[in-house]
Amino acid sequence: MATTYIAADLGGTQIRTGRFDHNLNLLQRENTLTRANDGLAPTLERLMTYIDKVMPSDRRDAAGIGISSPGPLNPKTGVIIAPPNLPGWHDVPLADIISAEFGLPVFVGNDANVAALAEASKGAAQGHRHVVYITISTGIGSGVICDGRLLTGRGGLAAELGHMPILVGDECVSSVELEAAGPAIARRARQAIAAGRQTTITELVGGELAHVDAQVVGAAAAAGDALAIELLAYAGRIIGLAIVAALHLFNPEIVVLGGGVTKTGALLFDPMRATVKQHVLDESYLDGLRIESAALGGDVALVGAAALAATDGGNMDISALDKLF
Amino acid sequence: MATTYIAADLGGTQIRTGRFDHNLNLLQRENTLTRANDGLAPTLERLMTYIDKVMPSDRRDAAGIGISSPGPLNPKTGVIIAPPNLPGWHDVPLADIISAEFGLPVFVGNDANVAALAEASKGAAQGHRHVVYITISTGIGSGVICDGRLLTGRGGLAAELGHMPILVGDECVSSVELEAAGPAIARRARQAIAAGRQTTITELVGGELAHVDAQVVGAAAAAGDALAIELLAYAGRIIGLAIVAALHLFNPEIVVLGGGVTKTGALLFDPMRATVKQHVLDESYLDGLRIESAALGGDVALVGAAALAATDGGNMDISALDKLF
């Protein structure tokens, strides 16, 4: 019986591939630059070359291939629709192409959903059946596991917590991502500086406002800068409201938070937790609820892609993975 | 083989019970006043009496009992937590009590989830596997079916779209329900009138502001009153944003809208649809999407309770129901 899973992480910057055993332990990994600007065909070629590098010597030992890709994509059909960071990719039937090349079942998932599956399989949410995963970096991505199964919706477009609309002011509609992701934190910092606000952020970027990013704001906040602390608190509050929405909608056992912006730590997390406590409908949503940082590091997409292959694209109950271990 | 389902709708005003055949056709119905103010024991007694009235002569013909109840409740344990309109009910193990009395499996669901199951079984969403149901009346309730299964979460508290927090102004946190349910529409009408706004609503209630409700606002709007039209448009816009959130989170095939406030028709629905179109992340969420009015009338809770019994409390895939038909 084939008990090896092949995983690929197709990112805007890097292509990473790996071979996993039946316990989802990583046996071999490879990586190369995506060089997405070369266009579709060379990138596909490179992806196939690096999948081939991690194939077992006897291909029959491989049970399937899981691929993490930037969205939007349709996990039911394996078609990549039009990722902003993969120029030239439009409606690419990636699963069919890779399956034809290697003669194996191929499952494709968007990076946030795949990461959710990874955290539920081998990370912070291992053993849980009701999981909300949120990653906060240049965007806000999320993945949800409802009663053991990855939530994908009709066309694989579900679980976009970052795109929940929120009202700001009586008229202006914004979204969680537009208010709380890294670029939003940087934008608010630049606006405050342009309006004459005194802050050490200005010194940290040598007066070059274009260099302000969430990491710089985090550093300034850690050093006690008042504006930077306010900005992280605002982002924390918005993320807290998104978590409240997630609790009311999914009633999860655990919320896992990943992504670069979460590295800012307590200055983000404390206002976030306070907002959750203040605005949750009922204490029962918090009974036994855990809100935790993601446990898997740089291998999260590979582990998740292997889990995707091991659960038929997330369609199988994740308890099937426990049986593997 | 037992092929009859017993259904009960425990409401704040009425108790209704029914016997259904294996196709979920209603064979017999009974009803009585709940008289909830009598307290727990008399209400329970009345519920059991009216369940008994619809029992088949040979009790072995009944496969199970489904009960629709006001929430909060835990559908996994069948415990009613503390519904506002059932005074004296605190942590009542309703499923166990009814099961002990009748010797049958008993499944309990909150009214909005049960209605979602009803619409997906025999109503507007029949044949669909990805369904969002929203009912807008004195509150906003909702139920979600994800890939054929009722979304309940860890403790049965999921799918509360009405309790999604939304920011109004930069600081004030409100919710969909607090901005768009019937009482919110009435509150805004009273506020505008108190602020001196001229409107026919004042005449419709004979100057008695306490009598303003969403139905009166609906009547005034239908007759062309400018304030009333504005108020419905605002509610429609908020509901539209809730639907946008639901599309991004659940990527459904169909959104079903029920409840008294939806009777106001186009003056609510047109701004709602315009908001959905304006704020949806991507056209692909709208591909083939249907937004429809609920199809089941007063029997919705009974039909849903029968469907609850037929799907082991919503845990089975709803395609199991199709096999029944």
Provide structural commentary.
The structure is a homodimer of 325-residue chains. Chain A is α/β, with parallel strands linked by helices. Chain A folds into 2 domains: 4-123 and 297-324, ATPase, nucleotide binding domain (Nucleotidyltransferase, domain 5); 131-293, 2-Layer Sandwich (Nucleotidyltransferase, domain 5). Chain A contains 11 helices and 14 strands. The first copy, chain A, has helices at 40-53, 94-102, 111-122, 176-180, 182-194, 200-204, 214-222, 226-250, 266-279, 300-310, 319-324, and strands at 4-10, 14-20, 26-33, 62-69, 73-74, 79-80, 106-110, 131-136, 140-146, 149-150, 165-168, 172-175, 254-258, 290-293. In chain A, the strands form 4 sheets. In chain A, strands 3-2-1-4-7 form a 5-stranded mixed sheet, with helices on both faces. In chain A, a hairpin with a 2-residue loop joins β9 and β10 (149-150). In chain A, α5 (182-194) packs across α7 and α7 packs across α8 (226-250). Chain A is globular. The first copy, chain A, starts with a strand and ends with a helix. The model of chain A has no long low-confidence stretch (mean pLDDT 93). The interface between A and B is large, with 43 and 43 residues.
Strand order of the main beta sheet of chain A, please?
Answer: 3-2-1-4-7
**Whole-angstrom Rg of chain A:** 20 Å
**CATH-derived architecture of the largest domain in chain A:** 2-Layer Sandwich
How many separate domains make up the residues of chain A? 2
